[in-house]
Amino acid sequence: MASEIELVDIQAGYGRAAPVLRGLSVSVEPGTIVCLVGPNGAGKSTVLKVASGLLKPRSGRILVGGVDVTGQGPQQMLAAGVAHVLQGHSVFREMTVAENVLLGGYTIRDKAVVAERTAFVRDLFPVVADRWRTLAGLLSGGQQKQVEFARSLMVDPKVVLLDEPSMGLDPKATSTVFEQVVRMRDAGTAVLLVEQNARRALQTADLGCVLDLGRVHISGPAAQLLADPQLGELYLGGRPAEPTATGGAAAPDVATPGG
Ligand SMILES: Nc1ncnc2c1ncn2[C@@H]1O[C@H](COP(=O)(O)OP(=O)(O)OP(=O)(O)O)[C@@H](O)[C@H]1O
Q: Under CATH, what is the fold of the domain 5-231?
């Protein structure tokens, strides 16, 4: 089966500056959450901008569902099945939750499809259904993030790109938001996730990719990345919990490019 999205050997950057991404390759398989972690400025958000057509790569290829969509802009990428939930909060605060969510389906002509997708996202995100007629600006940060998720799923994307969904949230709201990310995956949408909160995100993800110097430095099952003490020191803000006498952290089985 084709990957939901595949970025192959991407070079990308801004204006005439040196490239930020230098031969980056990453793919997201159906039914999986892939998390990109890495130091500040490593290029994590840039990967998502390339994946959603906001930034055209200088070279490399982008495939969605096996179809080459390299060079397409954001509208075509959305039509191809790639939805992008941007960093920070993007709800329209003076509009209701309903109006915000329905904006996500404005390109859908068939009213029956809009009704079906609306029912789907209301079911997936109970807070969206509960606060349907409330002004979005009155919701908490975590609730607003779920409205953004619901809006992005209106077009039934193959893959959703999430840029730092926990930004500005307290630990409880962060947990709720990550639980909803898992529900999105379980409901059939693959997820490419970028997070500062690397440990928390890797606890949620199926696979992790560590970005450094504009390419994927290490990738593997998220649990194995989390258990790797060296990675913990370098990229995850400290060592993992000490292994217990009966087992504990398994030896990592992670892949380095070319290795
Ligand atoms: N719009 C832009 N114009 C010019 N340079 C940019 C722009 N956006 C990002 N950059 C530069 O690209 C590099 C990578 O930025 P990016 O935001 O992708 O990194 P990141 O890994 O997501 O960082 P962080 O964890 O701090 O969010 C940085 O050096 C940044 O200054």
A: Rossmann fold (3.40.50)
